[in-house]
Design goal:
D-Maltodextrin-Binding Protein, domain 2, 13 helices, 34% helix, single chain
């Protein structure tokens, strides 16, 4: 994402995840086909094939979009940032947007986004720092002067690793962040190219199984407990122009997010749109799926980005929140 999950996602891009009928191109012109009076009934949704996206797939499979008068097409994207040019040229309407990368883009002033729904929240050991089993690294404090693999600089994983280092008494830049794709991290750690890895599930579980890697720091704990990861959103201009369509999309997702409170429902759907196998998804640390979009929670992310120098100016996320349906 800047989820830091491009390696996992790249394996999935060949999937064509299409709902009932055609894509998000033309609007429905006939009132008989659009009894709810939506501004647009055909939507193209950018889907990052990771657990974060589960609610949208649930909404599709259970017919919640159809109940709201929507026909959706899912277009797999490697990271949330890949949705921006597609939204700008009008070929994509909504997407799974990682909060860290989206807030950074918003802060640059070039593009304005609005979130319509929450999607995913971190849980303990869903993001973690790992070292080899015989490594002298025991805590985040031991990372000083070491090389740490991160999926991308200034990604959510990098930010969480810096937070853990600072919380353990060293500077946020006291370790060297080395860009390594998630699928390659285990091999690089095993060979000693890096001293530790900042990883996400399912790669945490895989590293433990394959090379006996140890978790030396849980990256979603203490100051980063319940850390917001991603939400569903679009360009502010599209959200403002299509309030009835937005509300229909929100209602469908709200139904799906309630279903996603049952872990088994999530476990069942994830293998259908990702490369994570059923036997793996049943044991990994899965995040939670918040049922409400709360600006105060998301402001934590923006404030941390400001604290760690990812933003030039403070960001008020309230301005990025779409009205919630009544």
């Amino acid at each position: 994402m800047r989820l830091g999950r491009a390696g996992l996602v790249a394996l999935t891009l060949a999937l064509s995840l299409t709902a009932t009928a055609c894509g998000g191109g033309s609007d429905s012109a006939k009132s008989g086909d659009n009894p709810k009076g939506l501004e647009k009934t055909n939507l193209n949704i950018g889907l990052v094939p990771v657990p974060d996206s589960a609610a949208a797939v649930i909404a599709d499979q259970k017919g919640f979009f159809k109940e709201e008068g929507l026909t959706v097409k899912f277009t797999p994207i490697p990271v949330s940032g890949a949705a921006t040019p597609l939204m700008q040229n009008g070929s994509m309407d909504f997407a799974l947007l990682n909060y860290v990368s989206t807030f950074m883009t918003q802060g640059q002033g070039a593009v304005k986004f609005k979130f319509v729904s929450d999607a995913y929240q971190g849980v303990p050991k869903g993001f973690a720092l790992l070292a080899k089993k015989d490594s002298k690294i025991q805590t985040a404090k031991d990372l000083k002067g070491k090389k740490v693999a991160v999926p991308a600089p200034q990604s959510i994983t990098h930010l969480l690793a810096q937070s853990a280092a600072q919380a353990d008494g060293i500077g946020k830049d006291d370790f060297e962040a080395v860009k390594v794709g998630l699928p390659e991290m285990i091999g690089q750690l095993d060979k000693g190219t890096v001293d530790a890895i900042a990883a996400v599930e399912p790669f945490i579980t895989e590293a433990q199984k394959k090379i006996g890697a140890r978790i030396v720091a849980d990256l979603v704990s203490g100051p980063t407990a319940d850390f917001p990861v991603a939400g569903w959103g679009g360009l502010a201009s599209f959200v403002d122009k299509n309030p009835k369509t937005v509300a229909a999309f929100q209602r469908a997702l709200a139904k799906a997010l309630k279903v996603a409170q049952d872990r088994q429902e999530v476990v069942k759907v994830i293998p259908s749109y990702t490369t994570i196998k059923a036997d793996t998804v049943s044991i990994i640390a899965l995040g939670t799926y918040p049922t409400t979009l709360e600006p105060a929670r998301l402001q934590r992310v923006a404030d941390m980005l400001d604290q760690f120098g990812y933003l030039k100016n403070k960001l008020d996320v309230q301005q990025m929140m779409a009205p919630q349906p009544k």
